[in-house]
Amino acid sequence: MGADQRLFSRLNAGKHELCPVSWLKPGRQDTLATYARKLLPQISDAANSALLGVSMGGMIAIELAKLTPFKKIILISSAKTFHELPPYLRKVGNAGWYKKITARRLIRLRQLAAPLMNRLGGGYRVSGQMIKDTDPEFLDWCMKAVLTWNNETIPANLIHIHGTADLLLPARYISGYIPVKRGSHLIIYQQANKINELLHGLPEES
Fold it and tell me: Could you tell me the superkingdom of the organism this chain comes from (predicted)?
């Protein structure tokens, strides 16, 4: 949530052009589905493009795929349906407890945990900095939108890459994915060489 182009800085698109989709300011009542519709005008030639989404971005990729066909959908460290969210997160969403988990509290927690995150490595430093740099209102919306997501549709041309040591979206709740051994939620940054290898090994037609 709140990730930006820095998360993709180690991604090697090879012969393909990487075209980031920019976040827009969501309406207070936007869901991931309605927000995806607002992002759609940024995407051209979807039928000949692969759409890659990480974490919440993967969920939005699912919603975009409902609106227009893509050549391929690639999820990394994400969930295909709300059933793949861990039960405790679904419980938080159903009970409305996300209202108590504000962005300002997350940013304060990040500040307190900064020394530990810095010792853990670059991925955690970058992740923490992106959280710090994100508009708190946008982060609040992200938490609500993810925790109340109700998608049950899985596109046929979808490929899911997931770390086996992901603590945010544990792999035991995920099905039908390509595993990255000992990979955390930040595999796209921390294990970029492995991700690039997997992406370059995918067939042109899924």
Answer: Bacteria
Number of H helices, E strands in the chain: 8, 4
CATH of region 32-39+48-85+150-206, choose from 3.40.50.1820, 3.40.50.720, 3.20.20.20, 3.30.160.20: 3.40.50.1820
Take residue 84 and report the two structure tokens written for it.
């793949």
Write down the pLDDT at residue 2: 55
Domain range annotation of the chain: 32-39+48-85+150-206, 91-148
**Burial class, 94, CB count within 10 angstroms (exposed 0-12 / middle 13-18 / buried 19+):** exposed
List pLDDT tens digits, range 130-140.
666 777 788 88
**Tokens 């294990």 belong to residue:** 191
